Amino acid sequence: MAALARITHKAHLPFPASTTTTTPSKPRAARICMSLQENGPSLAVVGVTGAVGQEFLSVLSDRDFPYRSIKMLASKRSAGKHMTFQDRDYVVEELKVDSFEGVDIALFSAGGSISKEFGPIAVEKGTIVVDNSSAFRMVEGVPLVIPEVNPEAMEGVRLGTGKGALIANPNCSTIICLMAATPLHRSAKVIRMVVSTYQAASGAGAAAMEELELQTREVLEGKPPTCKIFGQQYAFNLFSHNAPVLSNGYNEEEMKLVKETRKIWNDSNVKVTATCIRVPVMRAHAESVNLQFENPLDEETAKDILKNAPGVVVIDDRAANHFPTPLEVSNKDDVAVGRIRRDVSQDGNYGLDIFVCGDQIRKGAALNAVQIAELLL
């Protein structure tokens, strides 16, 4: 229960006008004192120099995650670099077979191929791996976890047993969607969900964010845009998500929403369809979600449910036409929900439309992984 309490500690704070993080500041010395604990687990961050790896460190610090030691792991080209974390200097180590000796929890965000190679090695060493890639999400027996949604999936995974385990972090678009849809699903049972995503550059990593910034300057200056990451102009444009298109016409990102929702909800019969689009937004994804229910649910009841849902904040001011935006949720922990309205294409109160925004790097990746680690404490 203490771990679940940590998940909800920021759940119902209204967003200020500023787009800076909602995490309350603490004296620097106090943060370090609270985090470095002899009885805490030993940590490793794999892919520490990447965008999500850096966010892992930020979230660990913000949430005063207790640890007795931490390893900074990355590729050979990053090895030897110095990093400062909580006023202590660390040298980035090359990820190797023996990197996980004595490591209790490893947070992975270095890509699927690295996870497939080193994840099982870490587990064999007795490490509990929280993996941010897609490598193990649909593997039977590997928990796919959003702590506010299905913490029970981790039952049986415990620290201090000497037994390693894999836990998968869902895809960012799935996390953001289900943070809002699940409380409504619990109340009225979703039988069909239609999702349209508007995904930011952050979902493709730091290089994509840098290219969007570069392209914006180039286009405004009348220069041809540099198109290395996506192969086409991103600035002032939008296009189908760059994930590979499958034989059924859906791309991999869209099918992740379909398959992961069914696994997380433990419901193979729920109908899910998705269209995923890249939009020229720097950070934070937006999603339009249409829900069809087995039981009636009116929009006012839905608002009340969402206002009381952990990790969710409602921004739904019709008079002011003020609803969630990516800017408002950037660097925030909570997922914002608005445009809560009855689906007029369905009779009665059996359908709702909602609009959801969440920080892809934060709740869509690093925060969710750290919350999973917190459940292990």
TrEMBL record:
Active site: C172 (acyl-thioester intermediate), H285 (proton acceptor)
Record-annotated Semialdehyde dehydrogenase NAD-binding domain positions: 42-157
Gene Ontology biological-process annotations: diaminopimelate biosynthetic process; isoleucine biosynthetic process; lysine biosynthetic process via diaminopimelate; methionine biosynthetic process; threonine biosynthetic process
SMART domains the record matches: Semialdhyde_dh
UniProt entry keywords in alphabetical sequence: Amino-acid biosynthesis, Diaminopimelate biosynthesis, Lysine biosynthesis, Methionine biosynthesis, NADP, Oxidoreductase, Threonine biosynthesis
Catalytic activity annotation: L-aspartate 4-semialdehyde + phosphate + NADP(+) = 4-phospho-L-aspartate + NADPH + H(+)
Pathway(s) the chain acts in: Amino-acid biosynthesis; L-methionine biosynthesis via de novo pathway; L-homoserine from L-aspartate: step 2/3; Amino-acid biosynthesis; L-threonine biosynthesis; L-threonine from L-aspartate: step 2/5
Gene3D superfamilies (alphabetical): Dihydrodipicolinate Reductase, domain 2, NAD(P)-binding Rossmann-like Domain
Signal peptide annotation: none
Subunit organization: Homodimer.
Assigned protein family: Belongs to the aspartate-semialdehyde dehydrogenase family.
Protein name as it appears in the record: aspartate-semialdehyde dehydrogenase
Lineage: Eukaryota, Viridiplantae, Streptophyta, Embryophyta, Tracheophyta
Protein's gene: LOC115755431
